[in-house]
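Batch manifest line 272
LIGAND: magnesium ion
JOB: complex structure
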Amino acid sequence: MLESLISRYIFVCTLIIFFGLSSITYAQNQEDMIPEDTEFYEPVPTVIESGENIFLDPPTDAIILFDGTDMSKWETTNGDEVTWNIEDGVLTVDIGDGLTIERIQTKESFGDVQLYLEWRSPMNMDHKGQDRGNSGVFLQSLYEVQVLDAYENPTYINGMAGSIYKQTAPLVNPSNKPGEWESYNISFKAPKFNDDGSLKSPGQVTVIWNGVVIQNNTKILGHTPFIGFPEYNAHGEAPLQLQDHNSEVSFRNIWIRRLDSENQFSIKDHMD
Ligand code: MG
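JOB STATUS: finished
ARTIFACT:
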C-alpha cells in the first residue's frame, strides 16, 4: 500500500517536472529562434493566370473604408491622422525614412468579416524577395494575410503573397505583374476565446486572390510574427491594419462587411 502510494507520488512528481521543464524549454526555444526557423521554400505554389474580371463593387451593406478620397475611417496606431499619399483615387504607403515598419488601422474594430480590397505592387524590380512590394492585411491587428510582389519573385512560400504570414502558403499563385492591380476578397471568422482566456475556436480565413481561392477556410494558428511560432492570446474585436513595410504598395476600393454568424438561422438548432 505504502509502496504503491510512494510510486504514484514519484510518478506524479516526474510528470510535473517533465511538463514544467518542457514548457521552459519551449519558452527558451521561442526566444532563441531566428527568422529562418519559420521560413519554408517548398512546394512552390503553381503559377496560374486568373480570369479577366477580378474586381468587385461593394454591396449596399458594406462599410466603405477607402473610396479613393477619404481616409476618415483610418488612423495611425498612435491615433494620429494618416499621412499616406492619395493621388488619382489611389492610396499609397508613405515609406517615410524607409527605416521603420509601421501600420495604419481602422478606427472601428471588427470580428467576423468579409473584407475586399485592391492592391498594386510598385515596379521595384531591383528589389528582391520580401523587399519587393511588401505590405500586409492584418485581420484584427494580429493575423497577416501577406501582400507582396509574387511575380517571378522567389521567397519563402509561407511568406509570399496570399500566405497567412509564416504559417500557410497559398494553394496557387495567380499573381499579376507588378504595376498591375490585384484583388483580395477575404472572409474571416475571428478566433473565439473562453472566459479563462483559453482558445475556444481558432480563426479561419478564406482568401480569394484575383478571383481564385488560395486559402480555403484555412485555420489560423495564432498571431503572425517575423520570429517565432504563432500563438494565441485572448482578445475581442480589433481594428483592421495595413502594413508599411518600406515598399510603395498602393490600395484602392477597400470595403468591409460584418458577418453575423451567431444569429444565422440553421436547422441544426431545431434537430434533436
Ligand atoms: Mg507584409
